[in-house]
Design brief:
CATH superfamily: Gcn5-related N-acetyltransferase (GNAT)
Structural class: alpha+beta
CATH class: Alpha Beta
CATH architecture: 3-Layer(aba) Sandwich
Strand content: 25-35%
Strand order of the largest sheet: 1-2-3-4-5-7-6
Number of domains: 1
Largest sheet: 7 strands, mixed
Helix content: 25-40%
Radius of gyration: 16 Å
Bound molecules: coenzyme A
Number of strands: 7
Distance between the termini: 41 Å
CATH topology: Aminopeptidase
Shape: globular
């Protein structure tokens, strides 16, 4: 397999042409632990289209030739849903100062090459160039003894700390989806991580 991966940033309406590949990528990666999510292509495409509506939103793409093998998204927190904004307003953090990172998804065979680090750095560069002073994201909270946790699973917490992000146990929200072994959707606890850029 070629390891010559190109990192490309697209924003606003430029995202549109990548929507089918991004939907496929999200479904493939989120199917695995810790997300265990089985989304429909229709839902994914509609969700991704929200990113095309803000000129300040971005996707950082990892391309192996023409194939999108990884992607990371971001948009101003002010354009996000109320579930995402609520922990910020509850903690007196000005919503307009925050650039919010959505997903980071990379096919497993491309992990450990530093692409995840580029995903964070590229989005921070974009956020700072648009005048935001805080970058933030959230991750799903799963118990250590979760039955679907694969042997040798490496949590990303230390990586995020190394990148300057601080876990905010007081800032949580819930996203609803149906786990692979659930019969209906249920709320999943999401915890936020923040970085202040001074
Ligand atoms: C998040 C993600 C994009 C990071 O990608 P990556 O390119 O492997 O990241 P990097 O190579 O920059 O390494 C980041 C960290 O991942 C871990 N890592 C390294 N190699 C790994 C591998 N082969 N497999 C899994 N994790 C690995 C390490 O902890 C590394 O940190 P380190 O610098 O302290 O060693 C990728 O792990 C992913 O798609 N995960 C599944 C989806 C997910 O959980 N996304 C985050 C929330 S949306």
């Amino acid at each position: 397999m070629s390891r010559n991966i190109d990192i490309k940033t697209v924003s606003g309406s430029e995202i549109e042409r990548y929507i089918p590949s991004l939907a496929w990528l999200r479904r493939t990666v989120f199917h695995e632990f810790p997300y265990l999510y089985d989304g429909s292509d229709e839902y994914e495409q509609a969700y991704l289209r929200t990113y095309t509506k803000s000129e300040k939103s971005i996707f950082v793409l990892a391309l192996d030739g023409q194939k999108v093998v990884g992607a990371a998204s971001g948009m101003p927190l002010s354009k996000e849903t109320n579930e995402v904004k609520k922990p910020f307003t509850e903690n007196a953090i000005p919503v307009d100062d925050v650039f919010y990172f959505g997903e980071s998804v990379l096919l497993s065979e491309y992990r450990g090459l530093g692409i995840g680090k580029s995903f964070i750095l590229e989005r921070e560069k974009h956020a700072l160039s648009h005048g935001f002073s805080i970058t933030a994201f959230c991750g799903v909270v799963r118990p250590d003894d979760h039955p679907r946790k694969p042997e040798g699973y490496r949590p990303l917490n230390t990586f995020w700390e190394k990148m300057g992000y601080e876990k905010q146990p007081q800032m949580t929200t819930h996203f609803e989806w149906q786990d692979l072994d659930e019969s209906r959707p249920s709320p999943k606890e999401m915890m936020f991580w923040l970085k202040h850029h001074t």
